[in-house]
Amino acid sequence: NAGVMQNPRHLVRRRGQEARLRCSPMKGHSHVYWYRQLPEEGLKFMVYLQKENIIDESGMPKERFSAEFPKEGPSILRIQQVVRGDSAAYFCASSTGLNEKLFFGSGTQLSVL
Amino acid sequence: AQSVTQLDSQVPVFEEAPVELRCNYSSSVSVYLFWYVQYPNQGLQLLLKYLSGSTLVKGINGFEAEFNKSQTSFHLRKPSVHISDTAEYFCAVLGRGAEGAQKLVFGQGTRLTINP
Fold first, then answer.
1. Coil, strand, or helix at residue B98?
2. pLDDT, average across residues A7-21
3. Which B residues in the span 38-77 are in contact with A, Cβ-Cβ below 8 Å?
């Protein structure tokens, strides 16, 4: 049973481009969480999704950021018109249900030039 | 609202020495506390957790932590560290977001460096 898979591991974008980060949860997991780790800071919650639903997006910036978890396929975190301040490690975690143990992916390191 | 403070951003220790990584929390609801470890270029792994019961919690790789309600602390300890323990360690408290869903609130992290 493969763990939580995130790709790409490293993503380089120029300012103004779009970044798409993908997360495939563990088999049998229908709950996905996205966290952002900024340099010199801890991990910050961004969004919690179940299949086809956004449950809690209180940690998402109001503009340019969106997330989805379709019925089929991975969860996608999308950042439009990236800026240098978006450079960070983005971690995805999945679980089987509400309040169940979280399993984390290895993260995607986004670098904005 | 819940919050976590890790008092040390970096902790250098010699191999086989004991180590303590400090964590203080604030929470207005029932307290569930966690320590996660992030090895270089890897995701987070759960080291240990406190949900209820005994205040001394044992985790993987010889780590343990003690929940102290009066001091609102959850410090992580290991009596003798190894080079392989070099990693970033995150303390976290379980918060509640929309729909009552779990939402981990993390500290800033402590970088543990083991020197030979």
1. helix
2. 96
3. 41-46
Q: Residue B11 in contact with residue B113, Cβ under 8 Å?
A: yes
Of A55, A91, A104, the CB nearest to B101: A55
Distance CA A101, CA A52 (A): 21
Beta strands in B8-115 (DSSP E): 10-14, 19-21, 24-26, 33-38, 44-50, 56-58, 64-68, 73-78, 87-96, 102-106, 110-115
Instruction: Please tell me the total number of residues recorded for chain B in this structure.
Output: 116
Contact list in B for residue A58 (CB cut-off 8 A) is 97-98
User: Which residues, other chains included, contact B98 with Cβ-Cβ below 8 Å and sequence gap of 6+?
Assistant: A48, A55, A56, A58
CB neighbourhood size of A58 (10 A)? 11
Report whether B89 contacts B44 (CB < 8 A): no
Q: What is the pLDDT of residues B47-84, one digit of tens each?
A: 999 988 889 999 999 999 999 999 999 999 999 999 99
Q: Are A87 and A79 in contact (CB under 8 A)?
A: no
List the single residue in B43, B107, B109 with the smallest CB-CB distance to A107: B43
Burial of residue B33 (CB within 10 Å: 0-12, 13-18, 19+) is buried
Per the DSSP assignment, residues forming a β-bridge with A92 are A34
Q: Does B103 have pLDDT greater than 80?
A: no
Pairing of strands B10-14, B110-115: parallel
Nearest to B24 by CA among B110, B88, B103: B110
Please name which of A13, A36, A18, A21 lies closest in space to residue A81, comparing C-alpha atoms: A18
What is d(CA A41, CA B110) in angstroms, rounded to the nearest whole number?
A: 10
